[in-house]
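User: Hello! I'm new to structural biology and keep hearing that structure can be predicted from sequence alone. Could you demonstrate with ABC transporter ATP-binding protein? Please show me the input and the output so I can see what each looks like.

Assistant: Of course. The first part below is the input, the amino acid sequence of ABC transporter ATP-binding protein. The second part is the output, the predicted structure written as tokens.
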Amino acid sequence: MILKTENLSHKYTSTWAIRDINIEIADPGIIGLLGSNGAGKSTTMNIICGTLNQTEGNVYVNDIDLRKHPLEAKKQIGFLPQIAPLYTDLTIDEYLVYCAELRLMEKNKIKAAVEEVKERCGIAHFASRLIKNLSGGYRQRVGIAQSIIHKPKLVVMDEPTNGLDPNQMIEARKLIREIAEEHTVLFSSHVLSEVNLLCREVIMIEGGRIVFSDSMDAFNNYAQSSAVLMRMDHPPAVAELLKVAGVTGVDFVSDKQARIHFEGSEEEVTDRLVAASVAGGWRLKEINPDKGVLDDVFKQLSQTAGQ
Ligand SMILES: Nc1ncnc2c1ncn2[C@@H]1O[C@H](COP(=O)(O)OP(=O)(O)OP(=O)(O)O)[C@@H](O)[C@H]1O
């Protein structure tokens, strides 16, 4: 098992920030830890990486108990915290050597490891530049480089694409995918689409508890909302739309676009709406499933979790 947490729970004050977090990762790939702000992602990651001591529960990395054998377990973990721990007055080379030493790498292996990781992360051409003179995207690459320099089994990244511009995000995602070819990556995000793009599996956490843990495909099936968005040139009155079998509610998001809530099969209701549009001359321009926004999915999932 690459990572196993058992009933991981943590209190900063009198209330539980996370409670009974059980994670099992047996296979390589990218696993997303998805949750809104304050859900408990950073707390979970900090504990897994040994930078925060849990109140209760256990962490095993590569079957090594992190509490009992912290040095051994930490050799198997790379960590990119939410704020990358960069020393901006060092050059990339100096910083990476320093990180390799912190990771207790053997002296004679450090030079080659630094070279390799610079190549891998696309920062070799800036090797002697001070980190403070790098753009946000390159700083993030340096942060990623330090997390894999000692070739850990598990790389943990806390919101690694947060604060990057769209191009930098694309580059960072590409790099994360490449890293996942050799390492298992656990990365957190509060953006559903980001997790969707990158991950094989998703663990969703809300209010400090896991509310969903399964494959991305299973999540998407679950998150499929029971509403469609319909754009028409000549939309009818709400009452007309409500006559279509299965339609349970209608709200207009603009004068030409309506959100149609329904019960039952999306395909059948969509077919009926299309037929009604043709018959009624509504001049349908577009009809699409309305994917639930993250908050709605959270709500659904937390209700399920409470049942
Ligand atoms: N040092 C701390 N002292 C007290 N409470 C804290 C501390 N750090 C986090 N918390 C609380 O613990 C809960 C979980 O926070 P955590 O930072 O783990 O969430 P998160 O999902 O990572 O959110 P974000 O994306 O905003 O970082 C929140 O209610 C937060 O206010």
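User: So the tokens describe the shape?

Assistant: Right, they're a compact way of writing down the 3D structure. Reading them back into a model, for example: The chain has a mean pLDDT of 90.
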